[in-house]
Amino acid sequence: MTDTATFHKKYGPWAVIAGASEGLGAAYADQLARRGLNVLLIARRESLLQALAGHLKEKYPVEVRTLALDLSIPDAVETIIHNTADLEIGLLVYNAAYSAVGPFLDHPLGDHLKEIDTNIRTPLALTYHFGQRMLANTHGGIILMASLSAFQGSAFISNYAATKAFNMLLAEGLWEEWRKQDVDVLVCTAGSVRTPNYLASSPKQTGGFSDAALEPEQVVREALGALGRKPHVIPGRSNRLASFVMRHLLPRRMAIQLMGRVLKDMYG
Asked: What is the mean pLDDT of residues 163-187?
């Protein structure tokens, strides 16, 4: 959907972007503001949010609000609901994620529970709340960010991959439930993306997945291009090919072992 007026009518006037301070979230904010949507930016770091908000206001004639918030805390959803009570939200982008990288038992249980809070509980509750409002208004869209690791067990990020599988299946199911009521749901299953968090994790060059990391702007362009057209998008031709091979040509056991070796090489 490329026509700006049509996009604004379908998904405006306001978009909520969770995990918006940099990387993919900042790219979503820029491309949505370019399409004329007002944006509410949510992330933990107030300074980064304010810098992005100032940048957007200089470039585009839109309203920008910020909300500094840890999306893993129990009252995060109630805080967002309170701060959007006066806004008509036409689009929710849930890009925030927490990942405990490394051997499963090397992390305390609290880290894994934080993954569940950030990656499952909060996006589920926001999808429920804003989905109700969108269905009542008979327009809107929801984008949940997932990961190629969601397609099979992924050693060294086992719980993270499981949380992304939840989001993938949730979005696909709601796409079918809501598409005839003019509310579009999309899951964007991304591979490696050159975000600050990804680069800070210092993945080693393996000649494989980490070397093919996409730029955030490309991922967002492909996601927004797929919204309203299909339930699921995998950005990047090489990622689509790798996913096809892993899911359809390799035995599942071999796919799990291959993913484990890749991740061990990247982070071991």
From this structure: 98
Q: Please identify every residue annotated as catalytic.
A: 160
Residue 210's CATH number? 3.40.50.720
In tens, the pLDDT along 14-33 reads 999 999 989 999 999 999 99
One-letter amino acid for residue 154 of the chain = S
Contact 49, 66 (CB under 8 A): yes
Q: Tens digits of per-residue pLDDT, 78-127?
A: 999 999 999 999 999 999 999 999 999 999 999 999 999 999 999 999 99
Cβ neighbours of residue 163 under 8 Å, at least 6 residues apart?
A: 97, 115, 116, 119, 120
Q: Are 28 and 91 in contact (CB under 8 A)?
A: no
In the chain, the number of structural domains is 1
Q: Which CA distances in Å does 231 have to 168, 187, 212, 255, 265?
A: 9, 6, 24, 24, 32
Amino acid letter for position 79: T
3-class DSSP assignment, residue 255:
helix
Domain that holds residue 22: 4-267
Angle at which helices 122-137 and 76-83 cross, to 10°: 30
Q: What are the residues facing 185 on neighbouring strands?
A: 142
